[in-house]
Queue: 2 jobs
Job 1
Amino acid sequence: MGDLPGVVITGVSGRMGQMLVREVQASEKLRLTGAVDRAGHDWIGRDLGLAMGGAETGLLVTDDAEAAFAEARAIIDFTAPAATLGFSRLAAERGLVHVIGTTGFSDEELDELAEVAKGSVQVRAGNMSLGVNLLTVLTRKVAEALDTEFDIEIVEAHHNRKVDAPSGTALMLGEAAAEGRGVSLADASDRGRDGITGARKAGDIGFSAIRGGDIVGEHDVIFAGPGERIILRHVASDRALFARGALKAASWALDQEPGFYDMLDVLGLN
Ligand SMILES: NC(=O)C1=CN([C@@H]2O[C@H](COP(=O)(O)OP(=O)(O)OC[C@H]3O[C@@H](n4cnc5c(N)ncnc54)[C@H](OP(=O)(O)O)[C@@H]3O)[C@@H](O)[C@H]2O)C=CC1
Ligand SMILES: O=C(O)C1=N[C@H](C(=O)O)C[C@H](O)C1
């Protein structure tokens, strides 16, 4: 067990953080060497297992990421954009793999992450599930096959605690659709319709977001044409799906050269 590569989970008290802890504890490929949360969080200084309502683990939750990273080979990070940027620099300084599930980055933050990735192994995806990554491949193919007579709309639904929209997954699907069409998503995307919007522009890729209850994550890519509609759909019903994808990415990335990778690379779908 002691020989397994060490991994640190950031944001351990979060929905994904706790799921990741459970998956690493059950893993035969990685071992948990650090548990990081935000300074001021009431889990800081507590035993991780007890804080999660389970058995004692002997691992204390810390807000000192630098110290926690010392024993690790990989960081799995599902937190918030500003936190992830900080962790990416620390991971790069120490030559650690950084698996990023965080979503909601601005373009400037994405540029910064890309700069850091030149000197470190970074895997980032708005969705770490096999199903969604396969759906991006299908979306690209369908968008390539159809012309702008077919309007592309991406509809996503998530729980009422989600803070960013469109979801990271919706943006991945939008990028795939834009790639299939041979256009830039920045030019084609239509977000946040309200009021007298005017008729839909041919070629636009529209986004709509539903927030409610405990929905884990649902995504439809709708190709609406004259007299017919094609709908590609993914429904996630268990967050463990994302956590397992992240662990797979961490193990895979340990053998890679510095650079930026996504889940298509990890899953061999590129
Ligand atoms: N790529 C994928 O497959 C998936 C991505 N996600 C994304 O992962 C992110 C987290 O989602 P979720 O777990 O639901 O959110 P939560 O809010 O439940 O968890 C985020 C955690 O990060 C902590 N955090 C925030 N800032 C820091 C910091 N500076 N240092 C350490 N910890 C910090 C939060 O602490 P506090 O609450 O005290 O602020 C919280 O514990 C989101 O961006 C979400 O979209 C989610 C699921 C799948
Ligand atoms: O915040 C979430 O919960 C999720 N976030 C990711 C996203 O933004 O797409 C992935 C998944 O849909 C759950």
Job 2
Amino acid sequence: MNENHPSDGTVDVDAAVVDTADDIAEMRIRGAATIADAAAEALAIQAERSDADSPGAFQRQLRTAAKTLYETRPTAVSLPNALRYVLRGMEGETVADLRETTIARAEEFRTDLEQAQVTLGEIGANRLRDGDVVMTHCHSTDALSCIEAALEDGKEIEAIVKETRPRKQGHITARQLREWGVPVTLVVDNAARRYLDEADHVLVGADSIAADGSVINKIGTSGLAVNARERGVPVMVAAQTIKLHPDTMTGQTVEIEMRAEEEVLPPEERADIVADAPNDDGLSVENPAFDVTPPRHVDAIVTERGQFPPESIVTLMRELFGETTGEPWEV
Ligand SMILES: O=P(O)(O)OC[C@H]1O[C@H](OP(=O)(O)O)[C@H](O)[C@@H]1O
């Protein structure tokens, strides 16, 4: 039997679930779609390895596993959407049936997620013309899918890649684009406005999309979008429907994750600033991971269901989610 870890003091979850939760929290697994995929995989592993001796015990284990995964990072709604989707497929009167349906549902989710990204890319590629220059922010697999599809269509695309402090995820984007042979100009975030004059599009992903069409994405997206609007550069958001945040239909706001000071200011650099007073607590650092771009600064949200003006995204949300909200383990 596999090693188990008590998650809430009463129900054990598999070590693989705890590992995945740690990887998400520490951003070894990151990016909204990748997080959703890993969470679904972890639930399947939990189902596969469960030692539950009754249907009730199995369901409690799966719900505890979902809660463990949910409590890692708060902003990307793809995580609770994935957990809810998988748990809704957990059906049957016996442990064997529950196991089988949960694993099948997780596999279906992961296949659909991959296909949605491909379809989204094909739709997004229609916005990109041969010879266009795209400015990117952070690293988004949904955004890159649009560029990949444009390249497959035979279009030549160039990219201006923002570094994206503090974690420099722009480097991941640059690496992927260079693998595809795309000419890349890497710039620090502060240079973005200067280089917008050379861009035909701003192309970003999303961690969550609110019902009013606001886009919650990596910190710096909103400033980029404001500058792009001022320069007349269209802003395109590539976001699978798994990024639509159902709770915002009933007025909830999206929690913005605040991350550790050390990502911005390593201890040795802090020591330099407060060299004369090592115990100085008058220096504080804020490190929000995301910001909110209002719909008026976004031209199009591209999903696998088509392209939407941000103000109309709520119609798609109602169709996909109805009015259902609540915690993913309370399915
Ligand atoms: O789902 P895909 O398009 O890959 O990524 C969507 C978004 O997830 C990332 O968040 P983080 O790096 O996990 O904080 C970035 O903000 C990126 O735009």
